[in-house]
Amino acid sequence: MFEALNGFAIIVEQSSLNKASKILNISQPALSRKIAKLESDLGVQLFHRRGKRLELTSIGHLTYTFALEQNERQKRFLRTIAEHKDGSQISVTLGASLTTLQTTLPPIINTFMKKHPNAEIKVVTGRTHEIVLALRQKKIDVGIVASSIHEPGLSCIPLFEDHLELVLPRTHSLAEITEVNMNHLNGMPMIIFSSGTWYRKLTDELFENTSVIPDIRMEIDSFEAIVRLLPTCKAVTLLPKSYLHQQLLDDNDLMVIHIPDLKETRRTTSLIYGDYTELSKAAQQWIEETTSLFNSFH
């Protein structure tokens, strides 16, 4: 039908069966038969035939619009196939946990896009086990998770180690203490991350292991919101070190206090993927460039 629709569109544009048949390099009777079959297949009349003149019916106008749309889609599809074959089209679907999406992923994507400004990057969010499942179901090309994954059929490349740090307003009472420890967080007003992430799990385990019971004022699933609310609520929080850069702290009048016990929250952020040979050239390129980026920091 695509071939017949293309012939139909050319007839409309040329306003002549004779001219259209020459462009398509087929005889006029053969083109007439193709259009007659198209009308039969669709069950509608596309032209009013007035002698040698052809006039589009109302449904003919709709069919012409559809034919143009299909022609464009076919061209895009064939172009994508060609680009895929020669590796010129870069399109990667990534899976990332919510925490990783807010910390690790933005600078990686920025770096990649600077080198490949026409690349298409799609991101699917989920918990670590959901990212692993999406990889196995081939819904994503590569996953970035805040843990090491050791599962059959999956490769895991460690990128960097991360741990939690204590963050608080510069005017907070703890800022005056020379050596802050976990005991200082007992009964302390805190804003923490919502349940269901590795970050919240780490936080809960930390409080349990150190017998600390903070005064939890808010549970929020956005690092940005937590940072903005700290001065207003006169509270403290625990955030991944990878998220904390000096400009962020300065803009919100915050500071970081190192507590030795927080080293116990250390986790490895990793790149995970399935069979490398089955990945697209773009996905392989993403893996190689991301790995190289973090290796340059060591």
From TrEMBL:
PROSITE patterns: HTH_LYSR. It comes from the Bacteria. GO terms for cellular component: cytosol. One of its GO terms (molecular function) is DNA-binding transcription factor activity. Pfam families: HTH_1, LysR_substrate. InterPro entries: HTH-type_LysR_regulators (IPR050950), LysR_HTH_N (IPR000847), LysR_subst-bd (IPR005119), WH-like_DNA-bd_sf (IPR036388), WH_DNA-bd_sf (IPR036390). Keywords: DNA-binding, Transcription, Transcription regulation. Residues 1-57 form the HTH lysR-type domain. Belongs to the LysR transcriptional regulatory family. This is LysR family transcriptional regulator. It comes from Paenibacillus crassostreae. The lineage of its organism: Bacteria, Bacillati, Bacillota, Bacilli, Bacillales.
